[in-house]
Every structure is written in C-alpha cells, then in structure tokens.
Amino acid sequence: MSVETPAPVVGRSDDVEISVVVPTLNEAENLPHVLPRIPDEYEVILVDGFSTDGTPSIAQALRPDVRILRQRGHGKGDALAAGFQAAQGAIIVTLDADGSAQPEEIPRFVSVLLAGADFAKGSRCLEGGGSADFSFARRAGNRFFSILVNVLFGSRYTDLCYGYNAFWKHCLRHIDIECNGFEIEAFLHIRAIKAGLRIVEVPSFEARRVSGVSKLNVVRDGFRVLWTIVHERFAASDRVNEMDDALASARRY
Question: How much is the pTM?
C-alpha cells in the first residue's frame, strides 16, 4: 500500500475535465449551500434517490448545466455507482449534498492526483482537517474500523469512513462496486488498497449538515461496514489483488 505523502504537482487542473458526483435524497434545502460553490467548469452529476421535496428542480434552478440522473436502485453506494458510470471527466470527485463537505477543497484533492496519485482520500483526522459533526459513537466506530482495516490490509488509513474522495476514472476498472449502502466508503477504500492504487490522504474539514437529518444509522450501517471489511478480507480476490499492466499504462499525470 501506499498511503503516501503528496509529490510536487506535475500537471494543471485546467488540462483535465473534472466530474463531481452528488448523491441526493431530499436535500432541497441544502443544495443552495453546495451547488453554487462548485466551480462552473466542473461537470456536476446529481443522482437523485426518489426525493419528494423537489430536489431535482432546485438543482436545475441553481445550476442549469447539472446532469440529473434518477436512481434506479436504493442507497448511497448504488447512487455513486450510477454517477461514476455517467461521469465524463478524467477525474471523479464524490461530494455529499448536505453541506458538510466543502467544495472549496476540491482543488486540494485534484492537485494530489496531478502529482501522481491514483486516489485522493479525504481525512478528518489529519492535521489541517477536522469535523464539527463527529459524535462519540461515530468517532469511536470510525477509529475501530480504520485500525481493523490497517491491520487486515496493511494500510495506514486515518479515516476509513469519510466520503470525500477524488480519483482518476481509470481506477474504476479495478474497483467494481458491489454494495449499495453507507458502507460504500469503506468498500472503495479497501478495494483501492487491494488494487494496488497509489493513495494519498488529504486533510478535509467536515461541517454539520445544513438542514435535515442524516440517513446514516450508526448501528445498522456500522454492521454493514464490519461485514464489508470481513468479506473483503476473506473473499477470493485474485481479480483485484494485483495491479495489472493496464493500470500502469492508463495512469495520467
């Protein structure tokens, strides 16, 4: 593995197209605090999961160029998978719609990729990051899962269950999404390790959601994360354990 220190930037963000995937479920009141802060030159893909509060209409009004996908399945993982498939950019960024993630941090993630990383993974636990919304239960669970994954997979993650990420689109050929819930973050980070991707953690600050109540259930989703870790550790994984020649030739700088 390979959680590394960023190298000097060797590319320019205006040389690559960036797609931002935003999963939503009844986030109409939060979108005004998110979409206007995403740079105009980025492609924005909003994947809506059966909202009843007019979320797609609000998104269209805030950002006329937004691409809106109607989710066919259920869950955050399913929504992200749909957005990844539709993304046209060479770089894909995952951004929550509740106002907790800061769109102004996107260039920080992109610069890490331009410096040579495959996967830029947000961390609230590095110096320069933080959270205004870490309950004791969430913090303890995240800490436990991070240590468990580090022991089982030889990683050095400081924040396993954070959903702010950016990666080169070519990485998707090595990370088949096989989950549909909030365990998606743990799943992506484990698959990235198993695929031998070059991963760099990026300090990130998580604010409180602007409005509404999180759909995350600490107990239920905690068990889903635990099951994902155990399954990924002991399932046959020849297909994702080795980085093949296609990955090396597809890397962009």
Answer: 0.86
